[in-house]
Amino acid sequence: MEYRIDQSEKFNGKEVVLKGWVYNKRSSGSIVFLQLRDGTGFIQGVVVKSEVSENVFIDADKLTLETSVIVSGVVKEEKRSPTGYEMMVKDIQIVSLSAEYPIGKKEHGPDFLLSHRHLWLRSKRQWAIQRIRNTIINAMFTHLNNEGYIKIDAPIFTPNACEGTTTLYPVPYLPAWKEEFDKEKISMGKYNISDNDGFPFVYLSQSGQLYIEAAIFAHGKVFDFGPTFRAEKSKTRRHLTEFWMMDAEAAYVDHTENIKVQEKLVSFVVSSVLKHNLNELTMLERDIKPLENTALGNYPVITHKEAVVRLKKSNIIIGERDDFGAEAETILSKQFDRPFFIEKYPKEIKAFYMKEDSKDSTRVLNSDLLAHEGYGEIIGGSQREDDYKKLLARIREHHLNEQDFQWYLDLRKYGSVPHSGFGIGLERLVTWICKLDHLRESIPFPRMMERFNP
Ligand code: 4AD
Ligand code: MG
Q1: What pTM was computed for the model?
Q2: In contact, 233 and 442? CB cutoff 8 Å
Q3: How confident is the prediction along the chain (454 residues), in pLDDT tens digits per residue?
Q4: Residue range(s) of every CATH 2.40.50.140 domain in the chain
Q5: C-beta neighbour count of 233 within 10 angstroms
Q6: What letter does residue 323 receive in the DSSP assignment?
Q7: How many CA atoms lie within 13 A of 300 on its CB side?
Q8: Can you give the residue ranges of the Aminoacyl-transfer RNA synthetases class-II family profile domain (predicted)?
Q9: Domain 5-96 CATH superfamily
Q10: How far does residue 368's CA lie from ligand 2's centre (Å)?
Q11: Closest of 270, 401, 408 to residue 339, by C-alpha
């Protein structure tokens, strides 16, 4: 069996071979303490001069940070170590001696770290965050599969907008072999016509929703998971220009049931993190009480109207039909001890596809799920307009191109059903679960308004 640091308990007392890197080093004359990592975790390697050959000790002494090494030694229990184990080193093979490592000597600013993201990913905190992100993705897949949802992949190149036209990223649909392209055959809606040599622009997907709506008529319950793109003008801690979203959609599910589906999913995801990542949460110094509350479910539901009243009581200036900005969401989300839903927003501030509330035609059957602890929106969802005429009227009101949405309108023509769904922003979820200050640490390579490298 191959040794893994995270399974050290299985190797207690045994001689193992660790293939990894030197994370840190400290010497005290006759002993060298190595912080070693192998991808699965961190362990201290102890090199005692009197117990290894002269060459091994010389090698141990010259190891630089991030040098790749193959280390042999005996794993033993050590109560004082954070992981409970350490390794008594017998042999060291240097795979590649690292040049002087730029990270770690002193405090670095965010810009420096982001410019070195390809290396920063190795740091303990960043390592812990990505492990948790992985658990979250797996938990979402597991839970939805258990609930009978089928994964349907939505396209990234799309001819139409899902979430408003102001944040679209146009891409010229202009391959290098354009000479072979028969322009006449390219289907072009109004939005696609351009002066781009007669070739269309397509848009990077803002959400797979509209496409997975089509798939519910084949499979009942479906979800997607993929990168989504929004040309966000604002430089906030909550917005990326490229982020990962999971959309879920189900036939014969109404607004109230939709809220329950979301609550169950988020409870499951957070329970999974508590089950698999206590070590990582400890590294991040994450207070787990708010997560334990989340795992219990029972999320409060308040209306948009009630949220406005609460904000006014907190001396926030807000109109009856306004959307909530980051500050308002932060204030509201400090008033609860677990995530909570805000439902029934004014129609005019929401997307064209949301179904009208039959009790108040000026509002829609939507909900946002806000994480507590000041984090704000993590999910946006709604019941969808399933009536052909009403949907067409909404498309026109929003000045969207009818021709581009013909296929979407078809879904209301051939066996339309009440249906609902939602989209969960992975980075928002990771940021809150890990209690990070900014979304940029939640994704391996963040893309923001002014940054798209490395
Ligand atoms: O609320 P949004 O805009 O909803 C939709 O896109 C729907 N089509 C989803 C659906 O019903 N299937 O976005 C969904 C979530 C937000 O709640 C937020 O978590 C995240 O996506 N999100 C962003 N995350 C990072 N950066 C951005 N710029 C984001 N914009 C939205
Ligand atoms: Mg939203």
Answers
A1: 0.95
A2: no
A3: 899 999 999 999 999 999 999 999 999 889 999 999 999 999 999 999 999 999 999 999 999 999 999 999 999 999 998 889 999 999 999 999 999 999 986 789 999 999 999 999 999 999 999 999 999 999 999 999 999 999 999 999 998 888 888 899 988 887 766 666 666 666 554 444 455 666 777 899 999 999 999 999 999 999 999 999 999 887 889 999 999 999 999 999 999 999 999 999 999 999 999 999 999 999 999 999 999 999 999 999 999 999 999 999 999 999 999 999 999 999 999 999 999 999 999 999 999 999 999 999 999 999 999 999 999 999 999 999 999 999 999 999 999 889 889 999 999 999 999 999 999 999 999 999 999 999 999 999 999 988 999 9
A4: 5-96
A5: 11
A6: P
A7: 15
A8: 131-444
A9: Nucleic acid-binding proteins (2.40.50.140)
A10: 7
A11: 270
- What is the 451 CA–ligand 1 centroid distance (Å)? 20
Is the minimum distance from the CB of 242 to ligand 1 under 6 angstroms?
A: no
Which CATH number is 124-182+199-441 given?
3.30.930.10
Question: Which residue intervals of the chain bear CATH 3.30.930.10?
Answer: 124-182+199-441
Q: Work out which ligand 1 atom sits closest to the CA atom of 162.
A: 8
- Closest Cα to atom 2 of ligand 1: 380
Q: Is the CB of 381 inside a 6 Å radius of any atom of ligand 1? A: yes
Q: How far is CA 285 from CA 198, 238, 271, 288, 292, in A?
A: 56, 21, 18, 9, 15
Tokens 């016509």 -> residue: 193
Q: Which residue has the tokens 């071979």?
A: 17
Of all atoms in ligand 1, which is nearest to the CA of residue 167? 28
Ligand 2 mean position, distance from CA 379 (Å): 7
Q: What is the DSSP string of 259-281?
A: HHHHHHHHHHHHHHHHHH-HHHH
Ligand 1 pocket check for 378: Cβ under 6 Å:
yes
Parallel/antiparallel/unpaired status of strands 31-37 and 15-27: antiparallel
Distance CA 66, CA 46 (A): 17
Tokens for 394? 């909404």
Q: What is the DSSP string of 4-33?
A: -GGGGGGGTT-EEEEEEEEEEEEE-SSEEE
